[in-house]
Design a protein that fits this description.
The structure is a homodimer of 505-residue chains. With 505 residues, the first copy, chain A, is an alpha/beta fold. Chain A contains 17 helices and 20 strands. Chain A folds into two domains: 309 residues, 3-Layer(aba) Sandwich (Aminopeptidase); 118 residues, 2-Layer Sandwich (Alpha-Beta Plaits). In chain A, the strands form five sheets. In chain A, strands 4, 5, 6, 8, 9, 10, 18, 19 and 20 form a nine-stranded mixed β-sheet that branches. In chain A, helix 5 packs across helix 17, helix 13 packs antiparallel against helix 14 and helix 15 packs across helix 17. The N terminus of chain A is likely disordered. Chains A and B meet through strand 12, helix 13, strand 15 and strand 16 of A and strand 12, helix 13, strand 14, strand 15 and strand 16 of B.
């Protein structure tokens, strides 16, 4: 099938022409290449170039294929298309919960696609799929490009998906050029990164890094709200049974020891407004901010809304409202974030004051110590708020905290950051700017990603590209085809640069 | 069966003795009577006294039987016993949803009991049960004592139940004394007062008053959360099918025209703390406060909790939190109440800022105009809060209101209020207080009751007795046997006084 596609589109003459251009960088304006459809080309393996033999200029000239990337990305979004927000064929969000039937379909496509690129595909016990394009040397671990194909229930087409698709595009681009690497280059699809169905995000890279026990992950139950979605079963399922049900419970132990990596690179939309606001094209991600997830429960007293004066209430929901307002004040004053995503009030009757409220609290900050300070202050303030509500009747509310997840600040690896920085500068050189370097910046990730866990075991870094209005976890999440391609070009170069770094003498 | 019970317990000699005492009020210390078990007595109808022939002192001496009332009340709570909160045999709440099997059982008992008291029993199309003890005159409508036998899913033993049982106790007390009335005296059990299973409270008195169409009530579906309770069926049922299933779909049209009343009296626990706090025994209810129920929806924008600065958010839940805090401030400043019982945040994910929040708002106040003022102010303030959240990104939140229910202030009938006031003062005279009158107060009902609807068609008023900590809609809801008996004595006297008022020349 692979050779058929080639023969339909390209001619050996064209391929030779472009290969020549690549070897003669002065002839090869990257601007022309980015807009020239003839850049889709292929050479046979016998004619292969080797990554370590390229000149610096040749590496800097490497580009992903914008149109093909966009086509592949939206093709893959047919499985799990979500809420429509515009009239265009791709103007829908995504609803592809981890291990749903739609997730199975896109996984099947991922395997078919990477196998067609001569990749060796393995699936581990967490359903992580590793597709490796072999390098010249078989005694070394591959460098991976990784992210996730699952989405939020009301997610978009780029968060995670762009990362995996840029990996596939990198392999296709390398194939186009007949580019061989010393070590292999892999693409990994991590399972349930979002944590939207099974409520621990990045759980499967966490198991791979041996930071989360396999048994805990296998026994993790889907959240009840998700169970009622049409894409999930009606009764809460464990990850293990969900993996079995879609036939993605692999036999390879989920561990960095069994599936080693030389490095992990991840391309992602920024999910924030900084790049867009500054008109910048690439964020060189140097770190991930610290975050802590809590579940809190406020216990007050159910009582009648019509007959109970305010001073006779221990209204757990009123206490919650004050806490949420306070959380923003405190977090803000320390340059941190504090957010509530889930709230549940019981018993849930119009004319009964809620006696029990549960909610999640997500505290984030650029330094572990700042998160500590915010948590400490909020524990004190929440206790004070609870103590006041119900005090006149001698039945004050009380609040209990449970820590669900603690992710300290992650600093990415300097070698990976260097590769991304050089690649970013090379790619943005295409622009008309008189100071192209100003189109890149170093940036800290606000969100967690699978790279947080890979960084515990192997050199890792990330690349951010702008997204419209900084919006994500929303159907209208959007990254232009140009920005997607810029990111894919950067990750393509970064992987090649890392390979050269490893094996150049 | 009725005569058997009499012969087992009482002797004619005793009955005559007590009757003599009643006619000679100076001999009849009400204190003695309240604690003297011999007060359980009976006379034959031939020896009957007539209500209109009693002296004022004789009326004031009428008392319910405390022990029998307590026994009957807890006996009736065997059907639908709920959550246990103590070790005593009656230390459980109630879970007797309208038209459940448990409700059928207690209805059967109600009919058997009132028939044994020589009542004529009719059942209407809403399953309302009317048991009438005939008076001397058959050409006039009876005076009714009414309330409800259904409960909240986590309710207690007094809300509604005490009202119906006090009616039965009044009939028994009248029988004890051979007391005949001019007009008949009835007891009515209204169907689904709570609105907990079928989500319109007081629906069946509403149909009786022709304020709610029969068809709407018959087609009303049980709420899904209740459908999953063991006492209800697994698939949502309509009121009509639920009535049929337990064989309580009566043939009598549900209307005040078909089942006329001369007046309606209702005894209820206060469901608030005022009586208990003030050490008072009886509340003479003069009115029911106005209330309005709304559903509100705040629309903001879903976004990532980790990557979105506060100033880039349109956080619908944060807007909600500010609104709830503000609602209490505004309501409080106008002597009103504002409560949120239900809140739902979507999409409901730890790391997604909620873009949509729906909640209920219950505003109550002593005057319609005050509720108007609070609503108007909150509409303005909520708009302002919504407009600020998301303003920096040009996507402010917006808030929409839907009115679900509007119940203006109800003023009870002065004739009924007078009867209750006089009766209350007579009954509390038993106390040791040097100023017994201070043990009663006029009070406004915070909650809705079936009396709200009966008051649209016939003279109505209510009696409140204290409940522990003002707590209701809770398994630990509690009213002492003494307080129950006080209330039952007041309603017994009130009915007799009303009968006398109607027929004394």
């Amino acid at each position: 099938m692979r050779s058929m596609i080639r023969s339909q589109v390209y001619t050996p003459t064209l391929a030779r022409l472009v290969r020549f251009a690549l070897i003669q960088p002065t002839l090869l304006s990257s601007r022309i290449i980015r807009t020239n459809p003839r850049r889709h080309f292929s050479v046979s393996r016998k004619q292969a170039m080797l990554s370590t033999e390229l000149t610096e200029a040749q590496v800097s000239a490497l580009r992903a294929n914008k149109d093909r990337l966009a086509r592949d990305l939206h093709h893959s979004c047919q499985w799990g298309s979500g809420i429509r927000w515009g009239d265009g064929p791709t103007d829908t969000g995504m609803q592809r919960l981890a291990l749903s039937q739609e997730d199975k379909q896109v996984r099947d496509w991922f395997i078919e696609t990477t196998k067609a690129l001569n990749c060796r595909v393995t699936i581990d016990e967490m359903g992580n799929i590793f597709a490796v394009r072999p390098g010249r040397r078989t005694d070394v671990p591959p460098v991976f490009i990784g992210s996730h194909l699952d989405t939020q229930p009301t997610g978009g087409r780029y968060d995670g998906i762009l990362g995996v698709l840029s990996g596939i595009e990198a392999l296709k681009s390398m194939d186009d050029m007949g580019l061989e690497t010393e070590g292999g280059v892999g693409v990994v699809n991590w399972t349930n990164e979002e944590g939207a169905r099974f409520p621990i995000s990045m759980i499967s890279s966490g198991v791979w890094a041996e930071c989360i026990p396999l048994s805990q992950a296998h026994e993790l139950k889907e959240v009840p709200t998700v169970a009622s979605l049409p894409t999930a079963s009606s009764a809460p399922e464990t990850m293990r049974s969900a993996l079995e049900k879609i036939d993605y419970l692999g036999s390879v132990p989920c561990s960095y020891k069994q599936t080693p990596m030389a490095a992990h690179f991840e391309l992602h939309i920024e999910q924030g407004p900084h790049l867009e606001t500054a008109g910048q094209h690439v964020g060189v991600v140097t770190a991930v901010q610290a975050y802590r997830w809590f579940r809190l429960t406020i216990v007050g007293r159910d009582t009648h809304t019509g007959t109970t004066a305010f001073e006779h209430r221990a209204d757990a929901l009123y206490a919650f409202a004050q806490m949420m307002v306070r959380a923003r004040e405190v977090a803000s004053s320390h340059g941190c974030l504090a957010s509530v995503g889930i709230v549940e009030a019981k018993p849930g009757s119009v004319n009964t004051v809620p006696g029990v409220v549960s909610f999640t609290l997500d505290i984030r900050g650029p330094e572990d110590e700042l998160v500590n300070v915010v948590e400490k202050q909020l524990r004190k303030d929440f206790d004070a708020i609870a103590a006041e509500e119900g005090k006149p009747i001698g039945k004050p509310c009380r609040v209990e905290w449970t820590l669900d997840f603690d992710s300290p600040v992650v600093k990415f690896h300097p070698d990976c950051i260097d590769c991304v920085q050089q690649s970013a500068e090379a790619v943005v050189a295409d622009s008309d700017s008189t100071d192209p370097k100003s189109l890149t910046r170093t940036i800290m990730s606000g969100a967690g990603h699978d790279s947080v866990f890979t960084s515990k075991r192997v050199p890792t870094s990330m690349i951010f590209v702008p997204c419209k209005d900084g919006l994500s976890h929303h159907p209208e999440e959007f990254c232009s085809a140009d920005d997607c391609a810029t990111g894919a070009s950067v990750i393509l170069q970064a992987v090649i640069r890392y390979d050269r770094k490893r094996f150049s003498s």
